[in-house]
Amino acid sequence: MCDTLKNSLVAPIVSVTDSVKSFINRICGDLEPWQIVVYTGGTTFAILYMRDFLFHDDENLSDRAKNQFFKLAKKIPMIRKKIEEEMSKATTSIAESVNKNVEGDYLLRLPASGLPSEKLLEELKRYKKMTNNSWKTGMVSGTVYNGDDSLTELMAKTYGMFAWANPLHPDVFPDVRKMEAEVVRMCCTMFNGDKDSCGAVTSGGTESIMLAMLAYRNIARDRGIKIPEIIVPVSAHAAFDKAANYFHMKITHIPVDEQTRKVDLNALKRAIGRKTCVIVASAPQFPHGIIDPVEEIAKLGQKYGIPVHVDCCLGGFLLPFMDKAGFPIQPFDFRVPGVTSISADTHKYGFAPKGSSVIMYRTKALRLRQFFVQPNWTGGIYASPTFAGSRAGAIVAACWATMVHFGEEGYVDSTKRIISTTRYIADSLKSIKGIFVYGEPLVSVVGIGSNDFNIFRLFDALVEKNWNLNSLQFPSSLHLCVTLLHTQPGVADQFVQDVKECVQEIMKDPTAKCGGAGAIYGMAQSIPDRSLVNEIAGAFLEACYSTQTTRPPAVTNGVHGLPNGDSKTAQ
Q: Is the distance from CB of 231 to CB of 268 less than 8 angstroms?
């Protein structure tokens, strides 16, 4: 019985196997052994290549195909030569631009003898004169969010008191450890976290965002997902792309509604898959200052069991105080079920010194996944909560001092002034024919576009009037990020008046070509091969570290008489 059953099952398999063997032998009958090896290896390689090309988790197929096309095209000698010529021109132009406000030659090595304090302070003052101080009069978008002299003095004194402190050694510096814990707890309370909420102080919004993405990647890896996916609105901060790049994750960008500039919820829902490890909402997003529908996104997160991160880096010290300032908004923080983490910058509207931000989690279990521990190092057990090992305790102390100095009342007052000014500017710009305001800006950013002319012409015209704004792409636009400096008497009115005058002039010939910096931004946006834009951006970053002047070297040796310092033009 058993033999009969076995034969009935095995016989068909043997028959099929014999047929396949005969077929393969007929095909290979006229081939030499080396041909069989080469054909087999080549076919295997081609199959593996196509598999990796078609099913690579890091990028979608269309992006990979486009990148591969441009990569091959740039290997054509004529095209490569033309690109190299244009890149050389661009690199030279960038270097000249970076160096245009630099005085004196660069120091290339330590002076043989150090400078006394008095002479060193004189030298520092000479360096300081290179700074563009137009931000003090409110002519710069964002960048400096307070700038008050008395606050600067308070932070400087605080920094001096804790200049040598290092949070890496909490046993030596318990004062800074306590301050950092209090900064985190105060922020968690601001965002309506309960006693289980927690977080860490970081060096800035980018680190806060990246730490959260690292935590969610680690959680996904534990579930067997090799390359986890981040889902973000296309308007989300580039730090999420940086996290995906650093941590070998896939990032999927969801389009926004053309009118409201809020993320398309239907498209977001369709993008959710088994590899999705986190969904992101911005409150508000950087380009046009629009708040994504946090409650609806959080509901999707709950439905599919996916964490939701709210990026509040820009609005972190505005949104929590808007209700008390008289500008009620929809819940966006830990009051919303499903929100699992929030990033908020203390060094923007919190007015703390640059280099401070906070990442917050709903539970300690989530925060634990951002920590790094090496238990087997010969130097001892090594553990750090953020990317850095040693950190500047003075920054933590100055952040703590600033928050305690302002208190809730101070932040409610600054929020009231900033939001009032932003909405005044937005309402005023809406009445100017030829431009429009993107969406409904509720916080501190006003995005400006035009259907009648190249908006970068307005950017150039405002630069001529000494305004320093942010130029944006996809779509072409610009924005003003309102800070406390813009609430000074007359600043908002002057901005509106300058925009009005510039637009009126542009509308006399709306189809005229754009020149100056605006042309560069427009060109960068239109280049289909984005790797070229990467190269141009890389040239800018290289220029920032260059010690080669773009003008004839000074006749005298040394920078303002620094003793024995080699300050020749770099070769």
A: yes
Instruction: Work out the pLDDT band at 56, boundaries 50, 70, 90.
Output: low
Query: Stretch 100-110: mean pLDDT, rounded?
Result: 88
Q: Which two tokens stand for residue 445?
A: 């950013």
Angle (deg, nearest 10), helices 205-222 and 239-246: 40
Cβ distance 344 to 330 under 8 Å? Answer: no
Least confident range of 45-49, 203-207, 358-362, 389-393: 45-49
Pairing between strand 357-361 and 339-344? Answer: antiparallel
Any idea what the Cα angle at residue 241 is, between residues 235 and 247, rounded to 5°? 150
| Residue 21: strand pairing partners | none
Please state, in angstroms and rounded to a whole number, the distance separating the CA atoms of residues 450 and 517: 18
Residue for token pair 């992101």: 280
Q: Cis bond leading into 167, ω under 30°?
A: no
Are 207 and 237 spatial neighbours (Cβ–Cβ below 8 Å)? no
Residues 6+ apart with CB under 8 A from 22: none
Give strand pairing partners of 308. Answer: 279, 339
Residue 377 tokens, joined: 């190092």
Q: How many CB atoms lie within 10 A of CB 98?
A: 17
Distance CA 306, CA 277 (A): 6
- Percent of the chain whose pLDDT exceeds 90: 70
3-state secondary structure 434-446: CCEECCCCCCCEE
Query: At 10, is the secondary structure helix, strand, or coil?
Result: helix
pLDDT digits (tens, 9 = 90+) for 252-298: 999 999 999 999 999 999 999 999 999 999 999 999 999 999 999 99
Q: Report whether 442 contacts 464 (CB < 8 A).
A: no
> How many Å apart are CA 260 and CA 266, to the nearest integer?
15
**pLDDT interval class at 6 (50, 70, 90):** low
